[in-house]
């Protein structure tokens, strides 16, 4: 079906454009037989957990891509952030963006460290270093930057600021596997970075996360803390937890990494199609990578200017949802407006979050990945054109 007038839109009583849902973050599963073969081999070895060969291979592959000496695979990116908070001995307050997924803040709050929310640069959607500097106090122990949508977070400014003020610098790189800036891969910046390999990420391990770092001492602490506090000689010197990635997850992760060229090609082609077909639609902008950045195009981010588009972001989202295009409003609202942070604003918000508020009301993510066809992308664009027209 291709609609030619607003009267045909589902929100106006017409039949939905798609008879099946188009999702944001639908898992890319290109070779299930290869995943099952790896899992079968793990079953034959009877080595299903505790640093098996698949996990070790996965860690080596991620470390190579990130350009780091060390990579540790964990059960999730959230547990990886929590382990890093413990490993670095963070206390007091940590500066984070509010324009992020709740896990970035939760990893701190869960461990009794106060997340202090910082405003962003609206063009990159990442921490504004000038705002970060204004929030640093004697209670600040670290900065956690987020590479939102895979765009690098002030990697040319924050390291010097953190070093000057004696702060730990970590990066939440959940969106950014395979991304780079000026030829330098994401994964090797700051004291450590955390990748997510959740099912919704373009490279997935069913569920999982990794910590990449150049710091051998930090890597050793992480290795101990995510394995009950054990040291290589079998002693227990810290109160650790169990956050080890199992072999089945590594089997999926390795297969996804092998399929990465095909997934990237699909993401890039979809992004180019959206950009091409929406270029002349008033008030609609497909966000692009910055100069010198290589993107994984995991997210197609649409920005809506209601003054020019004649409708708001929320109105467009409702219209598309009615057509079975299940867009997502990342990140709306900002984390500072979610409980428990909303209920204790004086503890978490010290300066205005004006740009965070503005951006969270303007952007949506459109379906992409290997599960959507070029024809479907064009039809989504036609719906947006009708909605605005």
What strand line-up does the widest sheet have?
2-12-11-8-7-3-4
Uncertain segments: none
Report the biggest beta sheet as strand number plus sense, adding barrel if it closes: 7 strands, mixed
What is the percentage of strand-forming residues? Answer: 15-25%
Summarize the structure.
By secondary structure, the protein is α/β, with parallel strands linked by helices. 37% of the residues lie in helices and 16% in strands.
Chart the SSEs and their pairings.
Layout: E1 22-23, H1 32-45, H2 53-66, E2 70-74, H3 77-87, E3 93-97, H4 102-109, E4 114-118, E5 120-121, E6 126-127, H5 129-135, E7 140-146, H6 158-165, E8 168-172, E9 180-181, E10 184-185, E11 192-196, E12 209-213, H7 216-225, H8 247-258, H9 260-278, E13 284-286, E14 293-294, E15 300-304, H10 306-309, H11 313-322, E16 325-326, H12 345-348, H13 354-360, E17 363-366, H14 374-388
Parallel strand pairs: 1-16, 3-4, 3-7, 7-8, 8-11
Antiparallel strand pairs: 2-12, 5-6, 9-10, 9-14, 11-12, 13-15, 15-17
Question: Can you tell me about this structure?
Answer:
The chain has 389 residues and is of the alpha/beta class. It is built from 14 helices and 17 strands. The protein has helices at 32-45, 53-66, 77-87, 102-109, 129-135, 158-165, 216-225, 247-258, 260-278, 306-309, 313-322, 345-348, 354-360, 374-388, and strands at 22-23, 70-74, 93-97, 114-118, 120-121, 126-127, 140-146, 168-172, 180-181, 184-185, 192-196, 209-213, 284-286, 293-294, 300-304, 325-326, 363-366. The mean pLDDT is 97.
Key terms:
389 residues; alpha/beta; 3-stranded antiparallel sheet; 37% helix
